[in-house]
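Recap from last week: sequence in, structure out.
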Amino acid sequence: MVNELIGNDTELLFLGILIFSIAVMFLSLAYLHNQFKKKDERMKMTRERAMFYSYFAIMVYYFIFIILLGLNLINLSPIETIEILASLTIITVFLSQVVLSKIY
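Predicted structure tokens:
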């Protein structure tokens, strides 16, 4: 009965990955709050660079998933694929901001 309500273990795994990525986002925003509340050039440059680098990382993720799914090397449902790509996108954007805030 419970298994019918919440789904199988793989659905919980992919949901857990998405929740983990949101936790990474919140921790990154909490870490960056003091720097981002000041609207200075350093904050703007960090955000711009993070989005620039994240764009290329996300394109690499998409390219890898297209190859893996096209060659049937992995067997994922569309919702699982979207959840993985969404979580990778969230983690990439916010962790790149944290890394770049240390550099700049």
